[in-house]
Structure formats: structure tokens, C-alpha cells
Specification:
By secondary structure, the chain is an alpha/beta fold. It has one domain: Class I glutamine amidotransferase (GATase) domain (Rossmann fold). Helix content is 29%, strand content 24%. The protein contains five helices and eleven strands, in the order E-H-E-E-H-E-H-E-E-E-E-E-E-E-H-H. Strands 2-1-3-4-11-10-9-6-7 form a nine-stranded mixed β-sheet. Strands 5-8 form a two-stranded antiparallel ribbon. It starts with a strand and ends with a helix.
Length: 229
């Protein structure tokens, strides 16, 4: 039976995210690997139905410091060339873009998105976000330019590339997989970037979480239903 492959970067919370919860509810088999911990990327795609590439604190172009990232870039190019569905989340989206020649950079004012921010569909993204702008969980300060041949689906006020589609791949700079438990885990981390330009206060985050989480869950589960079909 074909399987779903989840690629982590050593920064998973101790709670299942919405991708894992969805797959468990559907009874879908999945494998988890972390090249950062020495796990090998598959050589064959014969039994792989889809791949999800998660986020991480690495910077996607730091291949000298993290040689496994270069392997992930090559692996991602092969997946897209083979027309295998790929979902990149935050660093994973940057991996898809960077692997296909796009620049990954920061804003000149070093602004972050840490909290919940409006993601606005482009003209091409109306089917992607049919209800219009959605306030999504975020934690990043890098973003990717749009790779050649990709279609921009959504942007935010601070970062122009929030979602794109490139062949069989989707890249999301935002984090719809994040549950309330994971957000609270993030909020309590020593490295949480409170006070940085663009970052929300904890009170702001808590208010947005309470108001938006159910909508995020419905939207992402609908997306996953199509993505894993």
C-alpha cells in the first residue's frame, strides 16, 4: 500500500499536528523521517503517495552547516519532477522554492510573523481560500520568492509569498498544521521572539487562537482531503 512520508527537522512539538491527526483519523499509513538525525531519504518513490516537509529553525540555504539540506533540495526536485504531491510548511515551503531556484531571504527591517496573521488570496487563489482572507498561525522571519513556473496563491501584509503551487507541490509559509496545544508549546519556548518587529504579544495570540482555530481546522482538513485523495 502506498504511504505518506513526513519529513521533520528536529523541532516537532510533543503533540500530534493536524496532518498526523488527519492521517490517523483516515487510517492512512505514514512514515516519519528526520534527515537532520541521520535518516536517509528514500531512493525510490514507488510506494510513496505524498510527502509533507515540515518547518524548522534551520535556514534553508545553510547547506555548509547542514549538509542534509542539500539532499532535501535534490529530493524535492525529484518529487516535483515525478508529479508526486508535496506539501511544504514554512521551512518546507522554502525548501520547495529554493530547490527550484528561488531566493530565500529576510525583510530589510528584520520583521517576524509570530502569532496569527491574515493570509489573503490572490486572484489565482480564490479557490484555495474561497472564504477570503484567513488568519493563520505563523512563526518565521525568512520567506521565499516565487519560483519560476509557480502560481502565487496568497500573500500577507509583511511577506509577499504565503502560499504557492508549483506543479504537484504546495508551499505554505504559514502553519495551518498547528493545533492550540502546539501554539501554547511554542509560546512557552525560550526562543519565542516576543518583542521582535512584527511579533504579536501573547495576549494578541491567545485572542486570535480562540477566535480563529475552529475555522483553521475546517479549512485545513478540507485541503488535506483533496491533497491526499
Amino acid at each position: 500500500m502506498s504511504r505518506v512520508l513526513l519529513i521533520g527537522h528536529g523541532y516537532d512539538a510533543p503533540f500530534p499536528d493536524r496532518v498526523r491527526l488527519f492521517l490517523q483519523a483516515q487510517g492512512r499509513a505514514y512514515d516519519e523521517i528526520a534527515p537532520c538525525n541521520g535518516d536517509a531519504l528514500p531512493e525510490s518513490f514507488d510506494d510513496i503517495a505524498a510527502v509533507v516537509i515540515y518547518g524548522g529553525a534551520q535556514e534553508i540555504y545553510q547547506t555548509d552547516l547542514y549538509p542534509y539540506l542539500a539532499d532535501e533540495h535534490a529530493f524535492t526536485r525529484r518529487l516535483v519532477a515525478a508529479d508526486i504531491p508535496v506539501l511544504g510548511l514554512c521551512l518546507g515551503a522554502q525548501c520547495i522554492a529554493y530547490a527550484h531556484g528561488a531566493e530565500v531571504t529576510t525583510r530589510s527591517d528584520s520583521a517576524y510573523e509570530f502569532g496569527y496573521y491574515d493570509v489573503t488570496p490572490t486572484e489565482a487563489g480564490h479557490d484555495f481560500l474561497p472564504d477570503g482572507p484567513a488568519r493563520m498561525p505563523q512563526w518565521h522571519w525568512h520567506y521565499a520568492a516565487l519560483p519560476e513556473g509557480a502560481e502565487l496563491l496568497a500573500h500577507s501584509e509583511l511577506f509577499p509569498t504565503q502560499a504557492f503551487r508549483l506543479g504537484s507541490a504546495y508551499g505554505f509559509q504559514f502553519h495551518p498544521e498547528v493545533t492550540p496545544e502546539i501554539m501554547r508549546f511554542w509560546q512557552d519556548l525560550d526562543g519565542a521572539p516576543y518583542g521582535r518587529p512584527g511579533s504579536q504579544t501573547r495576549d494578541e495570540q491567545d485572542r486570535h487562537l480562540a477566535e480563529q482555530d475552529a475555522r483553521i481546522d475546517r479549512w485545513f482538513n478540507a485541503f488535506l482531503t483533496e491533497f491526499f485523495a
